[in-house]
Design goal:
By secondary structure, the protein is α/β, with parallel strands linked by helices. It has two domains: 150 residues, P-loop containing nucleotide triphosphate hydrolases (Rossmann fold), CATH 3.40.50.300; 77 residues. The protein is built from nine helices and nine strands. It has a six-stranded mixed beta sheet with strand order 5-6-7-3-8-9, sandwiched between helices. Strands 2-1-4 form a three-stranded antiparallel beta sheet, with helices on one face. Helix 3 packs across helix 4 and helix 4 crosses helix 5.
Amino acid sequence: MIEVTGLSKHYRSKKAVDEVTFTAQPGRVTGFLGPNGAGKSSTLRILLDLDAATSGQALIKGGRYRDLTDPLRTVGALLDGAGPVPERRAIDHLSWIAQSNRIPRKRVREVLDLVGLTDAAKQRVKKYSLGMKQRLGLAGALLGEPEILILDEPVNGLDPDGIRWVRTFLRDYAAGGRTVLLSSHLMTEMADTAHDVVIINHGRIVTQGALAEITAGHASLETAFFALTGDRTGSRW
């Protein structure tokens, strides 16, 4: 379970995250939805102890990420913009992560096959397309067969088949009793993937709840978002 309570992050006079509170429950995909610059990535970075909060707390299974005794087996994460050394081969990148976390080498082959990169395993990452890099990032997140997945824009750069595969995979992964927190600005894809949705705009939570509750009375998640936020321009999407 993920619990974020009263979380704030200030950069001088700017409030990137402002009193954010939400939970992500086991057995469900929780969509963290908002436009670019809304505070999604800042929240995830604090959750993973990559940045410090100004106030509030972000907990994983009741504690801080940095205090986990076996982090990769507890949390698998893919953050937008994070990636391996371009000159390294994909299989070497994953093997290094596996070895440093005492994960059997056979798991590297398993995740490469799972994300469809077996044939490209010995290519250097600099030759990968954006979609292939996303698949490699997801493979790294899955190495430890974690209880919790935290993903930031995981379908960025994927083709339609890849997007459909990620959607199905995440719902099946959550169905096994695991927690999935999915951050995105893609409303249509979120509507097809998430069980619960947390909407953030200008650093603050606008609403949260089951997808069906949020979209009730609206033609789509997109129309619900604009109605709830009053943002009719869509200029930040």
